[in-house]
């Protein structure tokens, strides 16, 4: 198989790879990154591909292995090993600039501005800040995801404008 044929067949798998990447990552941007990384690995290792075999299975295997390796690396990077007596580092309080004397705004000022926003704008914003995903907010409030996103965006915009005025 020539390089041109290989590249053409590989590009023909792009939609399938995007779908598979999204099923692995559940995030559009991460899926795009995974597809690009898979293409890069497939192109740099095309000499290892055996002609007249299943190119789709080969690239899907590259993608799956890349995803697993990235996941394991992220888990290792996010793991804190505390070998101190009494787990000193793990028990340190998480620092937050909110409520500190040197912070630009106090929590009360921010909450006061949020309270001035209409309830239909405020509820999705508060749920988002509590860690809910857009889909969860939309399901809970019986709204479309687009409506949820726009309400959060406009509430955030109003909050920034109001805090700049103070």
Your description of this structure?
- It is a single chain.
- The chain folds into 2 domains: 3-77, RNA polymerase sigma factor, region 2, helix turn helix motif (Rna Polymerase Sigma Factor, Chain: A), CATH 1.10.1740.10; 107-165, Orthogonal Bundle (Arc Repressor Mutant, subunit A).
- Helices cover 67% and strands 0% of the residues.
- It has helices at residues 3-12, 14-25, 28-44, 55-77, 107-115, 119-129, 134-141, 145-165.
- Helix 2 packs across helix 3 and helix 2 (14-25) packs parallel to helix 4.
- The radius of gyration is 24 Å and the shape is elongated.
- The protein starts with a helix and ends with a helix.
**The CATH superfamily title of the largest domain:** RNA polymerase sigma factor, region 2, helix turn helix motif
Total separate domains? 2
Q: Could you tell me the CATH topology label of the largest domain.
A: Rna Polymerase Sigma Factor, Chain: A
Question: What structural category characterises the helix and strand content?
Answer: mainly alpha
Q: How much helix is in the residues?
A: 55-70%
- Rg value: 24 Å
What CATH architecture of the largest domain do you see? Orthogonal Bundle
Short summary of the structure?
The protein is mainly alpha-helical. It is built from 8 helices and no strands.
Topology:
Elements: H1 3-12, H2 14-25, H3 28-44, H4 55-77, H5 107-115, H6 119-129, H7 134-141, H8 145-165
Helix pairs in contact: 2-3, 2-4, 3-4, 5-8, 6-8, 7-8
């Amino acid at each position: 198989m020539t390089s041109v044929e290989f590249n053409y067949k590989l590009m023909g798998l792009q939609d399938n790879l995007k779908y598979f990447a999204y099923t692995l990552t559940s995030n559009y941007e991460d899926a795009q990154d995974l597809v690009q990384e898979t293409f890069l690995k497939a192109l740099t290792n095309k000499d290892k591909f055996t002609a007249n075999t299943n190119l789709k299975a080969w690239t899907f295997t590259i993608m799956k292995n890349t995803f697993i390796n990235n996941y394991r690396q992220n888990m290792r990077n996010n793991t804190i090993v505390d070998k101190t007596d009494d787990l000193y580092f793990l028990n340190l309080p998480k620092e937050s600039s909110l409520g500190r004397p040197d912070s630009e705004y106090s929590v009360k000022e921010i909450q006061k501005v949020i309270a001035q926003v209409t309830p239909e704008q405020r509820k999705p914003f508060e749920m988002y800040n509590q860690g809910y995903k857009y889909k969860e907010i939309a399901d809970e409030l019986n709204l479309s995801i687009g409506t949820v996103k726009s309400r959060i965006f406009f509430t955030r915009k109003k909050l920034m404008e109001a805090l700049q005025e103070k």
